[in-house]
Amino acid sequence: MSFKLATYNSAEGPRAAIIIGVRVIDVARATRVKNDVSVDGILMDWTKAKARLTALTTRKGLRGQPLSKVKLLAPIPRPGAIYCAGSNYADHAAEMARASGRAAPPDPHDLGLRSWHFIKSSRAVTAPNQTVKMPANSKKLDWEVELAVIIGRRCKDVAEKDAYRYIAGYTVANDLSARDRGLRAAMPETSAFRYDWTAHKSFDGSCPMGPWIVPASDIKDPMNLGLQLEVSGAMKQDSNTKHMIFDIREQIADLSSKITLWPGDIIMTGTPDGVGNGRGEFLKAGDVVKASVEGIGDLVTRIA
């Protein structure tokens, strides 16, 4: 039997849980292992921890709470690092180029380029079914559904062929973006210091994530998963991870060649076309955003 790994809000604060069917089981209480109290602790020894969690799925007499009665938090409420792939779907790169009056860029592979990532603040992470307040002075709040990769082993200078061995699981993320806060006022177009990635990508609540982590062993092919995003019931994004420019293996190899990835670090793998900036429409107060990834689940966020 399979399980999902989550963090729930208990009377004692955030605690790790596994979800089996529609039951939520407190991990540390079931295993009596101290580090199992948090998802971070579980991921620090993922190989052994996964065996313990799998054993719980067949243990008789385990009591749990109904999922409908439990408040889920982001699976990793404060990850060590969040690396976000930039412009990693060709159709999205083309729509962003059109929005700024430029020609669609060529495939980076043809130019000998590798994947690139920016960092999103771990403090920006917010739980599923939460309300996110629009950032001050922004009228162009945008959506971006993404498959998020959860690292489960220390990872440095990893070859592409070995990259999947370092993944603990996957979750859903929404890279909310304040498009009109990405440029610093009065800075010339030629300035190398023109861009403000913090205001653009790391404002409070800009990283909804969840509702849980699906173990990598339960995802047959992460490079063939449907991605969808709806705004107040209207479909905006409908694509598949197979359309990534740099696949998951390439991204892990590229990142780990520059910096050590640690258990609990997150890689957001990019978004396809259909974002608001390409349509000239943006989120407004009262909108309900549902980001979905096939085989993982739905991540709902309300805008205020």
Describe this structure in words.
By secondary structure, the chain is an alpha+beta fold. The protein has two domains: 4-73, no CATH class; 82-303, Fumarylacetoacetase-like, C-terminal domain (Fumarylacetoacetate hydrolase, domain 2, Alpha-Beta Complex), CATH 3.90.850. 17% of the residues lie in helices and 31% in strands. It has helices at 27-31, 39-43, 46-56, 90-99, 197-201, 248-258, 276-279; strands at residues 4-10, 13-20, 23-26, 65-66, 72-73, 82-85, 117-120, 125-126, 130-132, 141-142, 145-151, 167-174, 177-178, 207-215, 226-231, 234-240, 266-268, 288-293, 297-303. Strand 15 (226-231) and strand 16 (234-240) form a beta hairpin. The radius of gyration is 19 Å and the shape is globular. The protein starts with a strand and ends with a strand.
